[in-house]
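A protein record pairs a chain with a discrete description of its three-dimensional fold. The following entry can be read in just this way:
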Amino acid sequence: MSRVCAICGKKPSTGNNRSHSMVATKRRFNPNLQRVRLVLDGKPTRDYVCTRCLKAGKVVKAV
């Protein structure tokens, strides 16, 4: 699955899991992406869009 927002380009970021003993192991913070039918470049397509873009109204949904 694509992990990049089609509108803003938001991608996964990295960080650490911290255990009780503060040992660090790598982890990924994935963006909250939803598969949406939208109008992109004048044509309706299905693409992954982050919930921030959906909430902000940056997406024109295809009917």
